[in-house]
Amino acid sequence: MSAAAMVAGIPGAGPQESDSVTIISIFPVERYHELQLGQFADGSQLDTDGNPYPAGTPMGGFRKFRLDPATRASHRALRVEGGLKWIPDFSQVGPDEPTAGITPIWQSAKMVADGLVHKWTRHTLGVTGSPGVEVLKHEDIEVDDTGNPKVDSSGNLKPSRQCIARMRKGQEVYAQSCVERANGLHVQGKTTAITDLDRKMAEWLYGSAVSSLGWVEKPEFQETKKCLACRRDILGSALRCQHCSADLPRWCLDNGVDASGDPAVTAAIERLRAREPVSPEAEAAKIRAIESKPLSHRTKAEMKELVAHRLDNPEE
Length: 316
Known about the structure:
Blueprint (H helix, E strand, L loop, with lengths): L2 H5 L13 E5 L5 E6 L2 E2 L17 E2 L2 E6 L8 E5 L2 E7 L11 E7 L1 H13 L11 E3 L25 H27 L8 H11 L17 E3 L6 E3 L12 H8 L7 H13 L4 H13 L7 H13 L4
Antiparallel strand pairs: 1-6, 1-9, 2-5, 3-4, 7-8, 10-11
């Protein structure tokens, strides 16, 4: 049975809609999507009893669509065909049939391809330029001297040079907007907000010269902690807060704050104490200040210091 004959009895279908269309991509990132899209049985599909479905029987199923990353000098092509989409059918709902059934409607190749392109480019809505993924139009197909469409080694229609040039121009504008956004984040110290897509677009736009951008290399994960002074996130190894500018070891010493939960600050405090010997008068004044506080107001560091002082000076 021909494709045209099979789709003739399906809502939304016409003989011309069984043709395929081609999606062209110059995007440097893989595009992938899976659709619930059926087909007509060709006699090879078997039911649960092992019997073949008659040819032309509407079948359910899934299809996977993938476009590999493109380089600056290449493009990728994906052939898309129409298929069956199953939707609820309420026409038979009644006293004898309380639940809706399902019925197939035909999704033309153009409808499927347009949906894929929208899925793959919707993240760019509202930005300048356009990512290089689009359905190949008839006027953009490359033809030979006799006017026949050219195909590549995989049988996909080939886009004209003018088509690729136009797509590349639009993607250059889009890539530049990604780079400008990433530059702004880098200047603000928000490198972690720069996305892999920003990096890929910069590589596509600048090629080997992309190394001049300070944010292209993806930073390795770095552990963070809360600043002991302002409680905002800083690097785990930091001794000075990038937000409140507090010198954390000195700040903890001056304010009697327990830094035992911060190994980096604790080690720095120990180094400070080793370099700055405390006079007996200052040590005695500090102990008196701790002892004057109510027990509930003393920090863990103060309690440790008080205990250490009494162990060193049992006669007091």
